[in-house]
Design a protein that fits this description.
Layout: H1 2-8, H2 13-22, H3 28-34, H4 45-58, H5 64-78, H6 86-98, H7 102-111, H8 122-127, H9 139-146, H10 148-151, E1 158-160, E2 171-173, E3 186-192, H11 197-208, E4 215-221, H12 229-238, E5 242-246, H13 253-263, E6 268-271, E7 277-278, H14 282-292, E8 298-306, E9 320-330, H15 331-336, H16 347-359, E10 363-374, E11 385-386, E12 389-390, H17 392-406, E13 437-445, H18 452-466, E14 471-475, H19 491-498, E15 503-504, E16 511-518, E17 535-541, H20 559-570, E18 574-576, H21 583-592, H22 607-610, E19 626-631, H23 641-647, E20 655-660, H24 663-669, E21 678-681, H25 688-694, E22 697-699, H26 712-719, E23 723-726, H27 731-734, E24 739-740, H28 743-755, H29 757-775, H30 778-789
Parallel strand pairs: 3-4, 3-6, 4-5, 8-10, 13-14, 13-16, 14-15, 16-17, 17-18, 19-20, 19-22, 20-21, 22-23, 23-24
Antiparallel strand pairs: 1-2, 6-9, 7-10, 8-9, 11-12
Amino acid sequence: MEEHALLTKSIKYRDVLATAVVGRGTTYDDLSENLDDLTNGEVDFAVLAALGRIVALQNITSEDRPNGRKFVHVANENLPRTKLFQKYRQLEFELIFESASYSEAVAYLNANPELKEVQDGYLEVDLYNPFSGSENSDYTRWLHGFNKIFESDGRWPVALSGDAKNPFDRLTAAKDLHQITDGPLVSVIMTSYEPEPEAFMAAARSILNQTWRNLELIIVDDASPNRADKLLEKLIEQDGRVKLVLLTENGGTYRARNVGLEVATGEFVTGQDSDDWSHPERLESQVKYLLEDPEAAGVMTSAVRTDENLSRIMPGLSPTRKCEVSFMAPLHLAREVGGYLNARKAADSEFRQRVEFYSQRDVGVIRDALYVIRLMPNSLSRGDFSSGWSHQSRRAFWNAALYWHSNTPASGLSVRDEPKAALPIPPRFQITKPSLRELDIVIAADWRMSHGWQRTAVDEVKFLVARGLQVGMMQMESPNANARTSAKPNLQIQELINSGTIAQVTSEQEVKIANLVLHDPSIMQFPTTQESNLRVGKIIMAPFDLPSDSNGEVIRYLYDDCTRNTQDYFSAEVEWSFLNNMSQAIGEAVDSGVSVLPRVWPLVLDLETWSGKNNLGNNSPRKIPILGRSCQDIDLHWPMKETIQQLWPTDDSAEVWILGDARGALRNLKEKYYADNWISFREGEIQPVDYMRAIDFFVYFPSEDSDENVCREAFEAAAAGKVVFLPEKFRNAHGDTALYTNPEGVAQLLEHYWRSKESYQAQARTARDALAQMFSDENDLEERFRSLLALA
């Protein structure tokens, strides 16, 4: 919950966690008001700490920081002082510091001395920052501590000089350093747009004062309305190594950098942002790295990030990170790949990765912090990131770029002679605002995983596109997904996005959507607070999963909550449609008061994907069969220990191949490790098609308490020509595509079909015939979709 709430910026978790804190129904507001009245025996302090961290780092309302701090404080007072909970103690200190309660911060740090050891002691160092207004300010002590990050790596310390308004702009070398005058010329490209004079001059001087003297600083002004000509001319007069390029049309940082690449004359090229600062040994270190390792495609440095007062404490953020703008590469290589993509944001990391894939060589990283990033509330990228969260458009761009790099021959990665965009640039990052796009259908889902129901959605997309419909996808994270981060979507859907077959839709876009379909209602159980500009005609909830298990221990979503949240977020009416086998869900939905369509949602399976050479039992050279089973890391997807051992042996009588995360089975078996005959294929370790073609049987029995009665992977296995065993309750949905029995009867059936080639082949043919009847009538399928979606 903690990670998902930060990833989605959802405030709906707050009431759920408030209830979990006290073990009974309550609201977040009630908990905030009455926290001091609760006794220790009533409070789960670990949950309270998580709630406090979520609230403080989401920072959506004016009360979030103080409320988050209060929750974390009470939790820390009662939690064990172990490494497990240290992040909450560090967060409390950061929140105290942010509130300028410096005496309290000193006392807190003394009471929690382990925090003084975090990353060169930067938490304590900031307490002495003379520019923070702290009564504990001590310039000498602060500067000594601030320099640890440089000196611990053997770098020269820095100092402050001059009378600039902001301490950041006074950064300089602590003393006159050595100078290197021999060696290759380095071109440093710095773009500007209405530069703030002191910050701009500090950034430029940090390059001109490098120990590596053989450089040219190419300043490309991106058509600033007020040219600041005097400022730029003054810099040219001070140092003849400065070149100035004045653009007449604003096109963004990366287009301006490409102009810099055109005029550069160095052997190596790198960048510098116009409000950051480079350590004087930065270029020297990078050039030496590339000279010593000529096989490297380039090298980047690490960076320390601070505010204008050189304070590094920012709640929830690490003070150090890799620095993309510092990337240095041979100029010829930068030109060969065609420079930066034509985007307003996020193109620097794409450029560096493309150089790697194009050259088939690694980019090195100097771990030393040789760059200082100025974090400003109004900076270009600041609004795209917070702790645990990044903007949808950023993620969409990264994922599209990674897919392009990973699935394109090296020669195809150069955009030098290709005017067309190499990958879909999110509208938010496009130089020219795109016109309003209209789509017939958008499927919103958590596309990060590739389990069976995701593949059903992909098949739907392909089918609808083939019928001439304009289709889009929207990534929305599900609390029930096993993916814990903003990981890339599955390869099938990313391929469709990159090829332009479908559009990727994010909430800030202006897109007109006739039909928005959600197959996982849980993504709207805890919806994001990010605003939506989408113009949605109607919304259909078409769940592939039941809302809960029969015993009520697992609740995936609630009909009324999801309906209300969806209507509020997208400003459109919601109707529900269910698969043919979900009659129980239909009744529950009607009873809950939501609108249910009279037509069932069609199930799509692309049979051609799964057909191939069969492994027909006793034709195999193996002496024992391979039994397949799909799963996620959820205990309740598995039956109890005795049933598992009956169905999927832990001895050498068969091999068991699990498609997915089988740790739930281990927990039910009360084992730490898989049996020698078990193999678990986690996400990305095997293609599902290859898996289905390799196994001999597919055996799927969920938990005894599960209401599940349809399995996409069972259809896939049957389509691949495998014999499938299912419980009797699956018969209505699967028909003749499988054989039905109880757990006790599986072993006997398996023995028969493993030994009898004729029986195996006969069942495989029967299953394929049944699948053809279910899924091959494309005209009927299209008619059903058009009827549901009210499309002509």
